[in-house]
Sequence to fold (472 residues):
Amino acid sequence: MNLSQYTKEFSKNIRLAYPVVLGMLGHTLIAIIDNIMVGKLGATELAAVSLGNSFIFVAMSFGIGFSTAITPIVAQNDAKKDTEGVRSAFHHGLVLCSILGISMFAVVYFCKPLMRYMGQSEEVVNLAAPFVDVVAFSLIGVLVFQGYKQFADGMSKTKYSMYAIIVANIVHFFINFFLIYGIWIFPKMGILGAAIGTLFSRAIMVIMMHLMLRKDKELGQYFSGFSLRNMQKTLIKKIVAIGLPSSLIMLFEVVLFTSAVWLTGSLGKTSQAANQIALSLASMTFMVASGLSVTAMIRVGNQKGLEAYEYLKTVARSIFLLTLLLEIGFALIFIALHTVLPHLFLEMKNPEKLIENTEVISIASKLLIVAALFQISDGIQAVVLGALRGLQDVKIPAVLTFISYWMVGFPICIYLGLYTDWGAVGVWTGLLIGLTVAAILLLFRFEKLTDKLKNRKPESVEIKNVEPKTLN
Fold:
């Protein structure tokens, strides 16, 4: 293996990935800002936000997973210079994402009573219910934003979503600050203030994304000619055929992590709060892998459109290698700071909550050791899934992820978490094993599929490399 053929692709991968990473970190920061600012109110409030967000994240993951179908279709048509193909994919994708956003809001709203049947503390449930009502409505904005974002990503314009999310986070922080704590003339609303901050920040993301893409010299042309009458059943079916399995893949993983929230909640609110702290920190580093997953989807989709299968494999492997190196670095940081990082989320100066918060930090520090290991597997499976989406291969990966998460990982979570003295650490050990199995199976799938493509048709041109585009 010639390592240099992969490392020389690193700069191209990073140029595409870093705006996506920062944008995704911004998405995660919206929840993390809620956790940190609400955590200052107490472990009960933090557990309530954790429970409420677990419902939101399940619905959001399904919608975001579906929206990823837009990117490889746009990227493939862009590589072939098919302007009408790009326009049609954008319009169809945006309509479907809007419909899905409304549907996800309705599902979460009407499923909210399930919180009372999940063995959670009544105090936590009562706080979480109004939080869910407000944040669920923001799902409409999230999915419309995703329609714009996935289109822009497919056109290799990855910076716009980053700009929108940065502004949204600034707005979110200030609304939270005034409404959670009741600063100045504003009432003290607690976690409901955090929910309102989330709702407004996500509305701003949509508005900014629409205005920026419409003004872009290259992308603005694709806004013309929109009409519901132009919706085509064949393209709708194609997007659904890619989007639905992609939704299920993301749903399988997020529900697994959500189940960890519920399992740790049944162990007590300190375990649930510790789980939320560790999950928040792990989610931040996972965003790097998520950004590289989008890069894999774009670059692999480009090369698939050009039928440059040999180079496609080199590009994908370079992204896998870069992800591995970065995730190992993050793992070392988690191990080195596992007793320090949890203190960011809790107020240790309050003597009334000192004993409770000390227990939360003790559990969270142990979870971060497991998180250090599982994020390596999580990062690899994420980027391989991105490459497979770029190939528009989603059905078999959906089966493989279901087996890994729910036939391997989840039973281990239950056994080690509830039937041994491992507690929350046992739950996270199950997550680690499930993610590792997924990473291995998906790598085998990618290698098998790309070998078939490479042998089926030789490359017809000497160099087939679509460079990342620059913003005007």
In short: The chain is about 80% helix and 0% strand. The longest helix spans residues 269-306.
